[in-house]
Each structure stands twice: as C-alpha cells, then as structure tokens.
Amino acid sequence: MSSTLLFATALRATISLPAIFGDNMVLQAEQSLPFWGKALPGERITVAIRSDEGDLLSKMDTVTSSTGRWETTLPEVEAGIDCRVSVSGDKSEAITFRNVLTGQVWVCSGQSNMAFGLNEVGNADEALANADNDQLRLFLIKCKSSEVPLDDVRGEWMVCSPSSVDGFSAVAYFFGENLNAYLNQPIGLIATSWGATPAEAWTPMEAIESEPVLSRIIETYQQYQADPSAMKDERGRPYYRKSMQKAPSWLYNGMIHPIVPYAIKGAIWYQGESNDKQPKEYQTLFPLMIESWREKWNQGDFPFIYVELAGYGRKQTQPSEGGWAPIREAQGYALELPNTSVGTAVDVGEEREIHPRDKETVGKRLALAAEGLVYGREGLTESPRFERFRIENNQVHLEFINAEGGLSLTEDNGLTGFAITDDGDNWVWADAVVDGETIIVSSDAVEEPVAVRYGWAKFPIITVYSQAELPLLPFQTDKS
C-alpha cells in the first residue's frame, strides 16, 4: 500500500465524540440537543438524527476550530422515537450511533448509597429477574478524580438487562423503572457516583472559592497541597487518599464536567453522610453545588431531586439527640431553590447498616417526586414538610405543606417522635394529636413551650405519614 493511500486512510477516521455519545443512548426529548467532539481543523461536520425508517428528524452543520474542536446544537425531537445518529465530515468517515431512543435523561449522582448496586438490595433476585427493559438505558461512569476538568469519561450506554444492571445503581434503576412505567417513555440513566465523598468534591472550584463561608474547604486543600504528609483526618489517616476523591472539585472535574452539556431533564442525588460534621457549611455548599451544575449545563433551572438521609445507628431513645438531624435540615436548604424536590429515606434505614438494602422505596419516592415536579402528576407526590407554628397556652400548633387530606400518626412504643422545650436546651417527649392537616403538641412537663422538634436523631422515631403514605420530614421549629 502506498504512503499516499495510507495517509488518505488515516484522514478518513478522524471524527471523535465523548463516550457519552454512543449506541443505545437516550437523547433528551423536546429540548435542544448539544453535540460536540473533535475532527480535523477547519472540517465541516454534519450531525443528523434520522428515524429507523430513514426520516430526517433533526440536522445541523458546523465547522471545527483551529484546534479541531467542534460543537453544535440540534433542534429538539419528540419523545418515543427509535432512531440513529450520524456524524459526518467532508474529510472524514461518518460515525453512526444505532439503537438510539428519544425520551427522558437523568443524571444520578452522589456517594455510596447512590452507587449501591441492584445486586445488593434486599429483593435483588426478584428485581434482576424482571430487569429486561429495552426502554431503560444505562450509562455507568467509571470513578475518576482529576485536578483539572477532563474532556471524557469511561463508560458506555447499555440496554437494561439482568446482566447490564447487576452492579448498576439500585436507586437509579428503581427511579428509572417507575418513571418509565408512569410516562411510557424511554428513560436514560447516567450514573456517576463515588462512595464516601463530600459534596465539595462534586462542585466546581470557582464556585467554592466564590463563597467566603466555605473558606475552610479551600484552606484545608491548600494546606494539603503545601505538605500532604502533615494533613491527617480524625483517625490519623492521610486527609485525602491517593485517589483524591474527597478533594474539592476533583470529582466534578473527572465525572461531571466531561458530560456537560449533554442534554438532560434533571438530576437525582443521594449524598450527605460525608458532610455530616459540617451541617452549617452544607447549608451553603449543597445549594451552591446545584446552582453551579445548572450554570455549567446552561439549561436553566433543571429539576434536581435529592434523597434525605436514612436512619442509621442506635434507634432514638432521647427526645433530642442530634446525630444526622442537622445534616438532614441542611439538605433541606436546597428546597429554597426553584425546581427542587426531595424523596426521603428516613424511615427505611437499618441500625447496623449505613447502606440500607431497601432502595426500591427510595427510587419510587424519587420517581413520584419527579412526576409531580416535572411531569404534571396531581395529588401528593412529596413528603409532608413543616411550614409554620403558633403557640396557644401550653400547646404548639404545627402546620405543614403536602398534607392535603390529613395526616396520620401511629405511636412507636408509646412515643410520638415529637419533643418540646421551654428553654431551647432541655427537651422532653411530647404528646401529639393530629387535627386534619395540623398537629397539636404539648407536655404536662412544659407549661410555656418555645420550640418543638420531630425525628431529631441519627436514627429517628418516625410516626407521621400523609395520605400518600409518605413520611413527615424531621424538623425543628427553631431552625438553625
């Protein structure tokens, strides 16, 4: 073969796209569709979406930059279409992605409870036996940390089957399964999570640096960079492990940035355990992370739904214990942002297992929240949540949102889960009476109450549910 022919052949295979584009992918329906990649400098690139029957659904041309990078945004395509995507250049061979669907795409991120595989859940055998679903597509991003933003991830789109979903996120799977059943649309799930990681690892560095209240995070990181051997955690171990998965921005750089701005509908998030020692900090950090993702994606305030932490450790025995209660409260600051919701795991925890095996309930609640927040489902789709209170004599009258139709309370060994105080420091168990959508709390030991807490413990007593069988979120009236 002549050198001229070899050179010509090399030129015919120069188009590349990130791994997030591939066979079996789901394209977000009814939204503009960004595509990007690399080719020869100055090359004209055409991206086209065609139905399996060959009908042209969407098309756009662009020209690569002097470095060979290209990007373009295709017009939206309706949901529920089987299609293929071709990417061609005037100097390169075309790439075709097949078995592509249009539907709803969700990013599923967090730490180990999001990473927890379907093969580990309590009902794994049943779930895996029923996991064949061509309308559910999975993309599992391999763990990768980086000091600088990366351009690509390791992973591939797979059709959901017992073998492909075996080690895939159980929470994400049950979320997608329920959403698919409700919408009757294809669902694409992008799982990107890493166990024992804090929220700052998933947040862009410039966002963290913009918030003075988060200066501790930056200062700790700078101290580590100056002398890694001097930085130890509370157990005397290196503060950041060799993989640096806890370092600020390193997981955003390695596992989020490379898929931005792939068109998505929204994100679900299960994390918080690794920030439990800094709840005040998390009140700022968590909403900041959400806002930074939205800014980077440039899709507006896309839906973001988080999991409130499950109970864990010794079951609550005292009226007010703390534990994970403050970090759950801090998680709730995200609800002050537009287009956010919550699916709680507070009542599905296990005393001796930080990774509760009931991920089906969690996935169902996330899907229900998405159906209400995003897809127009009516009725109760989110847990009841404390809204306001008033004090009359020695009684505290509590009012809630998401309580339409009334609440129900079933005592746990004679305890209601409510605590009351007259000074903010000394708490006693309280009686609680449900009056429709209101709960009246009191105690003979407290004549002049000033505050109430409910479920205020690492593994709290949970007794109150809505008519949709969704648990009341733990709260304190004297919110910190």
Automatic annotation (TrEMBL):
The keyword Ligase does not apply. This is Sialate O-acetylesterase. The lineage of its organism: Bacteria, Pseudomonadati, Verrucomicrobiota, Opitutia, Puniceicoccales. GO terms for biological process: carbohydrate metabolic process. It comes from the Bacteria. GO terms for molecular function: sialate O-acetylesterase activity. It comes from Rubellicoccus peritrichatus. The keyword Hydrolase applies. Residues 103-368 form the Sialate O-acetylesterase domain. Signal peptide: none annotated. Keywords: Hydrolase. InterPro entries: SASA, SGNH_hydro_sf, SIAE.
